[in-house]
Design goal:
This protein has about 450 residues and is of the alpha/beta class. It is built from 18 helices and 14 strands. A seven-stranded mixed beta sheet has the order 7-6-8-9-10-13-14, with helices on both faces.
C-alpha cells in the first residue's frame, strides 16, 4: 500500500481574533470577491474564517506513523497557500482525525469529525486500513477526499468526491515482482503485515510470480502486535529464497528482518519493499537493526516516479522544508521529497485550492468538478507548478493545468490517476536514490 510514516506532529490551530473592526471586515469582503487569492492585509487575515483540511488516518495503533506523515505534507501545503494569499479570503489549517487503523474505530472518529469541525474543506489520508469504511461516509456528506488507499475496490467503483493520485496495490505488487524479475531472482518469499493495507498485496503478487515463471517458496503473515517473528523468520530462511518481498509497518519489519539475518548465519537475504518502505522512520528503524550498510546493499523498493528538479519540485521542497524540525527526530528529512504520501497529498491540496479559485466558491458542489479540469487540463490551459503561480494565472483570467512534483495527472472515470514506477534504494546515510525505472510493457507482460 502506498503509505508513509513519521513521528508525531502537533496540530497548529488558528484562533480567529475577537473583536474584528469594521474596517477589517470590509477588507475581508473585498478579498472574498477577488477570486484569485491575492495577498491580504493582517487585518483581513484576522477576519477570514479558516478552512479545515482533515487528515483522516492512523495516529495510534500498529500503523500510528501514517497519519503524522500526511500532516507534514498538509502543513507544508497549507502554509504555502496561506503565504500566497489563501483562497477567497480564507486560510487553511490542518486537523488530525485518528482512525487507529481500524474500520471499527474509523467510523465513529469520522462521525465525530463532522460533529466537531467547523468549515471542513476536504479530507486527505484515508489509508487502506479504513478507506472502505469511511469513503462512503465522505461521499454521502459530499466531502472531497484524496486517499492513500491501494484497495482494488476503488478501481471500478465511482465515488463522485473520491480522488486517488497513487496506484492501487495491484500495480505495486506487479512492480515488486518486475523488480525481482530484473534481478533474475527465481525463488521468492513474501512477508507482509496482517493489517488490511499490507494484506492486499499478497494475491496480486502471487499471481504475478506465477505469471513470471518464478517460485513462491514462502508466504508469511506478520502479526504487527507481536514482539518476535522467529517462527516466521525460520520458515523464510528454511525455504532458501533469493529475495523477500515485504511490507510491515512500525517496529515489526526491523524485528523480522533482524531475525532473518540472525537465522541466516548473519547474512542478509535481499529485500524488495513497497513504496511505504521509502520513509525516514522505516530506514531509521531497520538500519539500526541490520546495520545501515547492510540494509543499503540489500534493499530496493518500488516507488512512483516523482520530479526531483524544476519549478514544481523547488516549490514543494520549500514548502516541506519549512516543516523541518517540527516533526521530531525522523532521520533524513529529504526522504519526504520522494515519498508518495508527501508528494501526492501536497498535489491534491493544491488541486483543491486552485479548484476553489477557478470556481470562485468554497462550496464543494461548485469547486469539486474543477479538480479534474485543472488536473488533466483543458484546451488552452496554462501549465502551472505551484499554488502561487496558479493563483496569479487565474486572477489574470487564464485556465490552468496544475503539474506538481508528482507529475501530470490523468484522472480516469473513477478519479484514479497513477503514474509510472521507478526503483529506489538507500545510501548508508539514509538518502534515497533512483536506480531504475519500470516500463508499462513489463508490467502488462506480468498480467497487469
Amino acid at each position: 500500500m502506498t503509505r508513509r510514516s513519521s513521528t508525531s506532529v502537533r496540530l497548529r490551530v488558528r484562533v480567529l481574533a475577537a473583536g474584528v473592526t469594521a474596517v477589517a471586515a470590509l477588507v475581508a469582503t473585498a478579498a472574498l470577491g477577488d477570486g484569485a487569492g491575492a495577498a491580504r492585509t493582517p487585518a483581513s487575515r484576522a477576519s477570514a474564517a479558516s478552512l479545515t483540511i482533515a487528515d483522516v488516518a492512523p495516529f495510534t495503533g500498529t500503523d500510528a506513523a501514517l497519519g503524522p506523515t500526511y500532516l507534514v505534507s498538509c502543513d507544508g501545503a497549507a502554509n504555502a497557500i496561506n503565504s500566497a494569499g489563501g483562497v477567497l479570503g480564507h486560510d487553511f489549517s490542518c486537523k488530525s482525525v485518528d482512525t487507529r487503523g481500524d474500520p471499527a474505530d474509523a467510523v465513529p472518529a469520522v462521525r465525530q469529525m463532522y460533529a466537531s469541525t467547523s468549515n471542513l474543506a476536504f479530507v486527505i489520508g484515508c489509508t487502506s486500513d479504513e478507506a472502505a469504511s469511511v469513503v462512503p461516509i465522505f461521499s454521502s456528506n459530499h466531502t472531497v477526499s484524496f486517499c492513500m488507499t491501494g484497495q482494488s475496490e476503488f478501481d471500478h467503483v465511482k465515488y463522485p468526491y473520491f480522488y486517488r493520485l497513487v496506484p492501487p496495490d495491484l500495480s505495486e505488487s506487479y512492480a515488486m515482482v518486475a523488480i525481482a524479475q530484473n534481478h533474475h531472482y527465481k525463488r521468492i518469499a513474501l512477508a507482509f503485515g496482517n493489517d488490511i493495507g499490507s494484506q492486499t498485496f499478497i494475491g496480486p503478487a502471487k499471481a504475478a510470480i506465477q505469471k513470471a515463471g518464478m517460485s513462491l517458496v514462502a508466504n508469511e503473515t506478520l502479526d504487527l502486535s507481536a514482539t518476535s517473528f522467529r517462527t516466521e523468520a525460520d520458515a523464510v530462511v528454511g525455504a532458501k529464497p533469493q529475495v523477500i518481498l515485504t511490507e510491515a509497518l512500525g517496529p515489526s519489519e526491523a524485528t523480522f528482518l533482524s531475525e532473518v539475518k540472525q537465522l541466516n548465519g548473519g547474512k542478509m537475504i535481499p529485500v524488495i519493499g513497497t513504496s511505504a518502505t521509502i520513509s525516514p522512520d522505516w530506514f531509521k528503524s531497520v538500519s539500526q537493526a541490520l546495520g545501515a550498510s547492510t540494509l543499503a546493499s540489500n534493499f530496493v523498493a518500488d516507488n512512483l516516479v516523482t520530479q526531483t528538479s524544476g519549478p514544481a519540485f523547488n516549490a514543494f521542497k520549500t514548502a516541506l522544508y519549512a516543516e523541518k524540525g517540527k516533526v521530531g527526530n525522523t532521520g533524513d528529512f529529504s526522504t519526504y521529497l520522494t515519498a508518495p504520501g508527501a508528494v501526492h497529498l501536497y498535489d491534491g491540496i493544491n488541486l483543491a485550492a486552485l479548484a476553489m479559485l477557478e470556481a470562485k466558491s468554497t462550496s464543494t458542489a461548485a469547486w469539486a468538478p474543477y479538480i479534474e479540469k485543472i488536473g488533466n487540463g483543458v484546451p488552452g490551459a496554462e501549465v502551472v507548478n505551484s499554488f502561487a503561480q496558479g493563483a496569479a494565472a487565474i486572477k489574470a483570467g487564464k485556465k490552468v493545468r496544475y503539474i506538481g512534483p508528482g507529475g501530470p495527472t490523468n484522472f480516469d472515470a473513477y478519479h484514479d490517476s497513477a503514474g509510472l514506477f521507478q526503483v529506489d534504494d538507500y545510501s548508508a546515510a539514509g538518502a534515497v536514490g533512483v536506480v531504475g525505472n519500470l516500463s508499462d510493457s513489463q508490467l502488462r507482460a506480468l498480467g497487469l
